[in-house]
Here is the input.
Amino acid sequence: MQQQQNDTLVTLESLEKVFYTDDVETHALSNINITITKGEYISISGPSGCGKSTLLSILGLLDTPTGGTYKLSSHDVTSLDKDQRAHIRNGKIGFIFQAFNLISDLTVAENVELPLSYRTDISKSERQQMVKDALTQVDMQHRANHFPAQLSGGQQQRVAVARAIAGKPDILLADEPTGNLDSKNANAVMELLDKLHANGATICMVTHDPRSASRADRIIEIFDGKVVADRASESTNAIAV
Amino acid sequence: MVSIELKYSIRMLLKKPLFTVLTMLIVAIGLGLTIYSFSLLNSLVFKPLYLNNDKEIVAIEGQFDQNHLFRTPIDPYHLNLAANQLGIFEKHGYYTEGTTFIGGSDSKHPALFYAQKMNSAYISWNMFDIASVKPFIGRAFQQSDYVDGAEPVVILSYNAWATYFDSDSSVIGNQLSLDAIPGRIVGVMPEGFSFPDSAQIWQPLNENQINPTQASYTGLFAFAQLKDGISIKQAQIALDGINKEIASTLEEDFSWRIRGNGDYLLVMPYKQASIKQYYNIFIALFVVVFLILLLACINVSNLLLARVNERIKEVAIRVALGIPRKKLIIQMLWESVFICAIGGGLALLFAAYGIEITNNMFDQTFAVNNQKPFWWTLAIDNTAIGILITSVVAMILVTGLVPAIKAMNNDFNAVIKDGTRGALGKKAAQTGKILVISEIVLSCVVLVMATILLSTGYFASKADYGVKTENRLTAQLQVSPDKYPIRRNTEDQYQDTLKRALVYTNIKASVENMPNFTAAAIMSQLPGTGEGTSYFEIEGRAAAVYNENPYSNNEIVVGRSWDALGMKLLQGRHFDHRDIEEGVYNLMINESIARDFFPDGDAVGQRIRRVGRDGASNTWNTIVGVVSDTYHGSTMRSSSASYNSYHPHDNIGPMRMYIAVHYTGNEADAINALKQAVADIDPAVGVYHVQSYENLIEQPMKLLLSVSKIFLFCGVVALVLAASGIYAMAANNILQRTQEIGIRRAIGAPDRKIMSMFIKQASMHLTIGLALGIVLAVALISYMSNSLIINPESYGIALVGIPGLIILMVLIATYVPTKSVLKLEPSDALHYD
Here is the structure.
């Protein structure tokens, strides 16, 4: 039990997110209780508008919950200020977006280097080495000096993965990472995530593609802002909530 | 179909009323200012003068004298010679301008009981013929009026006739006193006619002046009509040849007619000749207004571009639905049509209002001397309307078509797939940067120029001219040369001179005896006015070349005039009876000359004389005193001087002098007392241009100050356009990068790093924009400053203050929108649409 507590990376307790638009109150997330341990590969799925992306944004400290608690590596990060949240995002979280979100004016290497450039504890030579390692992991080192527009969608997403893993984050958050890709490229990206997981990465992925979801160890299903199922993938038994 | 598109455009414009009103206002201001400036410059400078004829009137005169800011007359002998040899003139005539007092106490017209000062034009008999204007009543001049011994005749302007003769048609043939000499009224010109520029009466020149048989000292201005097919440029080339010929045959006595570069007879558009000293400033104004129009165009384009970016998704959906692109472009163009057409209508109203204000401003500027040229009445003519329509069409194309085509060239598939990713590509970002830099350059140029002109005018009006101006009235005095003639080169010359000089001496005494006045000063030009310098040579210290000698302004002074102006005698003595003796030429100098050239305090007793290109004067003047410093001429004129010499009036006997009186009590009583004091000595002495000393000093700068006010308005417009434009442009660029900001924040960039990134980019735009803007502004100012001294404070204010202001504007325009985007949660920024 003690070992499990030490391995816990994310704890969400009674998490809520409410949006207010004029007089309308929309509950995007209600009473979310999730624990993620280190090395887990989780998939969050559900229909459009169910709140899965909102949940991922909160997990990534891109958005703040309106209620409940969020602990990351045992630290309560629910109500940190902007700079503290930015610091944690930079050091502990890696993002992979559906639309790749590479900056078009920067080269592949510069895009990967970007999050590292905001760190003060890494020298320039270390930074360059980390960029090289990350690009090698995704097999994109030969395109280091190209601009995103010169790459295919699959290649762009691999660069986005390299950017996410370059800083050796505690957790990788992927929001529909294959949503903008054809099946061949989607498969390649999923294999890349599998490889990263196999090497010990903790991955939390939002997807509504069952094939992608089935690659995870654990699948969390959300409906109308609530967790309706949290089960192990394939061989693992479902955990009723 | 058209009606649907129209309705849709109107609905889209009404949906964003602030955008619509703002865009229309920018168009209206930019175009309004353009139409206004075009009307101003066209009336004053560019539109050829035609009068009633279909042939342009051109001016022929010597090179403009930059030292004294005088137009230079020519010898009719030489122009007649050129006209006969070259055959390039259809007709040509001559004129010179002056002041004539009409009427007096014996006049039978009550309005002329006190002699009235008139702007008089002395003209060749064919002037009315060339102008194709006949007298309204009576007759024009005829050749018999020009012969020696002919009865003096005069033609009245319509205004003079209406004001002083009660529009009485029976005045034709009546006698009228002209500078105390009886003359006869022979005609009245039609209303509005005042050629050569502001004539109130016309008198004939003498036949010998118009048709001299040899080179003479006569100086007249000429006007002409060129023969068909001869341009001004061709005429000048022909005259250049004659100038060379004249230069080679000119006797030494008249060699001063030819300038160092060989210029003498110069032909130019008539209006341009009359504003030679301000020509560069008007051109600068034109450039500034053009730049403002560019600013307006950039702003409108940017606003429409921002709107296109806002609607990019809608356009993409329409294209995806199969609407032909051409139709979409036309539909988007309709918005520009509405904005520019309504803006153009408003522009016309703005321009008309500006013109009304300017006409009033000109009337005030020339209220004292009545010397407003007749073409200085502005109106919006058909050409201006044509330019407005053309500009509106051009603006519709520039501001509508460019953004529309740009919108059409987007990758619609990408836009539909991902709401924002296609909206701002690298090209759009580059365009944004260029637009921001252009805004900075243009606003810098316009604001720097406006600031320099305004502050120079302000400092000149507040400058210390070395005299006290409070409770001082000034006026011009004129004695009749016929009543007090000086028979030059005769044995009577000395006595005649003394007799005329005595009039001024007596007037000074008469004024000082009045209880209203503590002291009076009479000078040829009062300090603060009367620019112009000539070289002088100190005995025993002559420079090798004449123009390496020092130079000073020279004024004629009646006795002890210093007291009334607050000037002080510092060394030597005042002028007195010892300076009146025949053959004695004494003078006084000011402190600056004494300090710089006689530092040992031994100025008194030293001798100096005038020198010029043609050699030194034979007359040595002995310094008898040193007075405190004054500054003659406006500090903003290149011809002004701080070295001044004063000559006693007794052995010069000038025809006109200025009087300044220090009064107690109220100004109205002082004016009456001054006129009475002069009338007590001689009622025929004219007293005119009565005004406060402050007003007198401002007088030479009034036109410039009026132009400065236009520059001020341009500056304010430019500031508003630049501020709104830079803000809109920077905000738009930042808004377009919201998603990028979201990405950077998602990967852990602290807000301060993102802010610092945008500030750095803005600083780079500022560096490029300000560098270009300052270089351009300095180049334009240097072009403008041929006849204008720009004081160092103005440079300081403009070249430090304006860039500082622009830096502040750009930083605010960067900080505020960036801050606003940073307020979004990163997740919202990432999905910003």
Notes: Chain B touches chain A at residues 417-418, 421, 425-426, 429, 739-740, 742-753, 825-828, 830 (CB under 8 Å). The first helix of chain B runs from residue 2 to 15. The first strand of chain B starts at residue 58 and ends at 65. Residues 480-684 of chain B form one domain.
